[in-house]
Write a structure and sequence with these properties.
By secondary structure, this protein is of the alpha/beta class. The protein contains four helices and twelve strands. Helix 1 packs parallel to helix 2.
């Protein structure tokens, strides 16, 4: 098998190795120089004032967490840094992922950018509540409510800029 090629293996397919063992492969996998990188399937929808990122994975593993956080963090350097993280397809995350999402939301607000999580499944809501993170996060039941919050926060930022400029 040539390990420099890219192979896409759908869920529930198996890749047979040269020693006749089988490995269940459920993600997009790159075989290069002996390293395996698992890529997440994320839908990105860019709107006028914000972007909606929707992971299409049911489980976000520890390996995927760093990739997701890196992807989200990159938006802080963009002209439109406001993010809605739609978690409607995600049924399971680990504690580390929950903490990193909560920490990242704080980083966004420290940089004057919106970060809203929406459509959390009950299983995820329980994880965030058990870790006492839910009440500190900006979470909405629907994506349209998240849109409203981003727009209200933008108006609030504009008013604060106007207020700051008028007091100078």
């Amino acid at each position: 098998m040539n390990y420099s090629k890219k192979y896409f293996i759908n869920k529930m397919h198996y890749l047979k190795t040269s020693d006749k063992k089988t490995l269940p492969i459920q993600k997009l996998i790159y075989f290069t120089a002996g390293f395996i990188t698992i890529s997440m399937n994320v839908k990105i929808d860019t709107k006028e004032k914000f972007s909606v990122l929707t992971p299409k994975e049911s489980d976000i593993t520890a390996n995927m967490t760093d990739q997701l956080i890196e992807m989200l963090h990159a938006y802080l350097d963009k002209d439109l840094p406001h993010i809605i993280l739609n978690m409607k397809y995600v049924n399971n995350i680990d504690i580390e992922t929950a903490e990193k999402i909560s920490d990242l939301q704080l980083q966004f607000y420290e940089k004057n950018a919106s970060f809203i999580v929406c459509e959390l499944q009950n299983s995820l809501e329980i994880i965030f509540k058990e870790m006492d993170l839910f009440d500190t996060m900006n979470v909405t039941p629907t994506e349209s409510e998240a849109w409203d919050i981003v727009q209200m926060e933008e108006i609030e930022r504009e008013l604060m800029r106007d207020f700051d400029n008028s007091t100078d």
